[in-house]
Amino acid sequence: MPDHRSMKLGLSMRGLGYHPSAWLDPRVPADGAISLPFYRDLVATAERGLLDVCFLADQNAITVSDTPKGAFGRTPVGAEFEPLTLLSALSTCSSHVGLVATASTTFHQPYQLARVFGSLDHLSGGRAGWNVVTSSRDDEAQNFSEDRILAKELRYERAREALEVCFGLWNSWDADAFVHDRSRGVFVEPAGMHRLDHKGQFFKVRGPLNQPPTPQGRPVIFQAGASEGGMDFAAAFAEVVYSVQHRLADAQAFYAAMKSRIAEHGRNPAAVMILPGILPVLGGTEAEAQAKYRDMQDQIDDIVGLEKLYRFFGDLSGHDLNGPVPDLRQDIAVVSRGEMMVRIARDNGWSIRELFRRTSIGNSHNVVVGTPEQVADAMEAWFTQGAADGFNLLPAKSPVDVADFVDQVVPVLRRRGLTRSAYAADTLRGNLGLPATPVGRLAGA
């Protein structure tokens, strides 16, 4: 085996796939995004491939615009489960794979967050994870009685406080507090309870949490921010970091920078997994895979592609689509993904049309086109050359591309000794190789 580590693999399973027109493919059930059997089958496929994580991204609004006019309604919108509700259902029909949901600290209260993620950890037997996000869109704020989103620097301050409150609430009880002693008539030892009494800038939380310590001590913390604030937040709190890079050198630079930040926060860099996104396009030969990728690009309607760029560049419908990519719009605070789009477009000399055709498939993540062996080669290079601890699989079209990856790429990785041949544990922490999290007095509560 070329590395003592085991490559961690996750599945991002939101919706019908990352190709914006995936729903047009007859192999993709158009109603799948609001179908429990659809997601149940995805989880079963992930467990068949011994994947570590099934992950649900989320936003608290419909964020597809109608710019250019006519764009709205051409891609799947308005058909999504609330992630924790869905993962709670999926916990009953899975046994090993981790179940990770996105939830925003910008809108939700930490007591609520601690309780729902604690409940998922109990329901799943210790397989819950929380992808901690700070919301960035006014569309979302307007669903929570606000006109504008909280300023970015305040969003991360709120997130830090929310997470610290959740950590405290998950330590509300000693591990041995719930004695269930029928002979004494004692259900729980009062001395094992620890009230939080938190008073901070954003939250005032008395506690304790009204549930016992979870099987993992606390759910695994995921984070995906690529901005300066996001990276520092991840370095302080995250146990798994999602990232967006296209090139090996860029991924190596991010990996080294992130691990260095983690160490600066007094944490063990080896105990934090970095998982770049990858969208594989598979074929029996390289030529077949390339032809498949060209067909996928041709399936993107220009108006859909322009809508995907609108948030970062404004309305480009009046531009020559075969002309150069313009500067980012100046009327909003553009997130890091927009800056990355400009960089890769300029580095590769892409036109506007080439940019949206390449980034719409995979939401700007790395697209690897080739045979199963070539895709495995690329993954192995990133894994063994200091760029990744594993990967977050982004299927172009679900469920077909998930099954193809599990049946064609995973066996290659396994033969090379890069991935496991059996689950190592029953909990998500155990399968990721993360340290146990003590609770109650053991955690210093």
TrEMBL record:
Alphabetical UniProt keywords: Flavoprotein, FMN, Monooxygenase, Oxidoreductase
Residues the entry annotates as binding FMN: 58, 102, 156, 227
Superkingdom field: Bacteria
Pfam annotation, one family: Bac_luciferase
Keyword Ubl conjugation: no
All residue ranges annotated as the Luciferase-like domain in the record: 35-387
Any one GO molecular-function label of the UniProt entry: monooxygenase activity
Alphabetized Gene3D superfamilies for the sequence: Luciferase-like domain (3.20.20.30)
InterPro entries the record matches: Diverse_substr_monoxygenases (IPR051260), Luciferase-like_dom (IPR011251), Luciferase-like_sf (IPR036661), NTA_MOA (IPR016215)
Span of the signal peptide: none
NCBIfam families recorded: FMN_nitrolo (TIGR03860)
Entry's family note: Belongs to the NtaA/SnaA/DszA monooxygenase family.
Protein name: FMN-dependent oxidoreductase (Nitrilotriacetate monooxygenase family)
